[in-house]
Give the backbone structure.
Amino acid sequence: QVQLVESGGGLVQAGGSLRLSCAASGSTFSINLWGWYRQAPGKQREPVAHITSGGSANYSVRGRFTISRDNAKNTVYLQMNSLKPEDTAVYYCHVATSWGRYYWGQGTQVTVSS
């Protein structure tokens, strides 16, 4: 089992920045993929960024967001810059394990005002 706890969401003005954190506990040695998704009101959950255990990153939101990991802290981060009102959503941490299991965090609200 893997437990995920997100933090760092909040209210920010357009053009501002936020850094989300997701701390993992439990069987963290089994995690081979870390990621962030988001879900805006009335929309489907969509991927934002992923990073492998080897450090290879992939982005669906390019240029403004950066995903990174701290292996010692079992934590993944999402640095979000130049935020836009359309970035408003609940952001979820997601991990995949070598056992083929998937885990989600509880979500953290990001609200960008215009």
Summary: The chain has a mean pLDDT of 95.
